[in-house]
Amino acid sequence: MRGRMLRGRGADRRNLRTIFALLLVLCPGYGLGRLKAQEVAASSTDCVDRARSSPSARVMVLLEAAVTDSALAELERYGVVHGWIDRYRLVAMTPGSPADRGAVATLPFVRSVENDSVICPASVASWNLDLIDVMNVEESGFVGEPDLREVKQTGAGVHVAILDSGLTPGWRNVLPEERVAVDLARAFIGGGPPSGGTLANEFNVQSPPGLWEQDSRGHGLGVSTMVIGFKYGGLLVDGSAPGAKVIPLRVADESAVSFASHIVAAFDYLITLVESHAIGPVVANLSLIIVDGSVAVNPSSPNPVVERAIDDAIAAGILVVAAAGNSGEFGMTWPGAYPQVISAGAVGWTRQYRPVQNGLPNNDFWWTQDVGFDPNPRRGPTEASESYVAGFSSRATPERGQQLDVLAPGALIAHTLDMRTFSGLVFGFGTSLASPLTAGVVALMLEVNPRLTQAQAETILKSTALPLKSADSRSGVFDFGAEQTISWDTDCAGVACDAVGAGLIQADAAIAATPKR
What we know:
2 domains, 26 strands, 23% strand, disordered N terminus, alpha/beta
């Protein structure tokens, strides 16, 4: 149908530019231990720098009515059509010139033309699960000694959709294969023509097959380990919801570039799965950043089309969790800053790399050691006193309409990677890790009550969180080769800000407060 009408228009398509696609650039933002952290930080910077220095002309064109062959043919006169999403009457394209973009906006069947915003992923068990009361780590020094769960729920019967870079070809070496919904995994980049057509639709999730497991960067893999755990040698290290199933949804290409329209397409697919009853309760995790290349300090801004897709997902019963961002005192990044999502900032552990041996950090199994004594602080330091707000964790600036909901571990989180250039145990930094840990706890709550709403989940997480002081500090934290004092407060360069939200998520308390189905 659409393809047949557009046969023979290859020359015209070469000059077309996408008009309705929000550009989303995905840049890994989690650290990989001391040296790897520097490499990944550079990658994140490159991602944002590319978006600033080479702004994309790609746009999303919103139509007044359904996408038709004639509408696509007309749009092809003004640039390259990349794909379309029927639910949102959206066509992603790159206009041939600013004049072409203006011409598209005046077409009688076009409602509006929006920028396809750039999105970079926020940065990407062990002590972290102890801190949020999923596991009770009582390690005696022997690695691999079994640890008891503090909650009986595992996320069974719940799906967690990971909108990210997909998985690497070697993911089966890292993830428990039975916990990955291979039949539901999709890629929303590089799609071919629909059946019987000739015009390629990059949102065509069926062609080519297997693209979702061809990532070379590992961001989506690292994020997934936070939910379902990972294999390390002969051990299986738990995630926050080891009984859940993750759905890898790839929205970034090999250069770590994605567009907002890819995120919209992924949500469209998820909503369709829910509406068709193909899946039951589901959480969507967004460890991503919408980038605005025109902003010098905190290069992020809201995008109305992405927000609409998030609102539609929530209305369909999908619970949405997002990273707060890694911009520190420069403020939160979107989509985490949207008040309707559950946003997660990052904390670290004051005893990371302990015990220090001969003045050097313990790089081995410090991460399997016990965290503070909650709920019996008389036995020793409390969990709150052993937590610090990571310097990179984005603070909410209320004057920009930002809202930080909760905190979760996101500094020096152990996980494994299996990529073409690196394999092994790494320690990650970033709210990209705090977000899926939180999404996993939401999955535990959904196991208790599959009908839990977004508003209910957010209220429960916040009301049961472990409060941290809005201004405080922790001394003697061994970080990057030396002991440091890490502080946070409510003043971000003269602007009022919030670094802690409601506090640190507590899985056991959140589950106890969740109303039964």
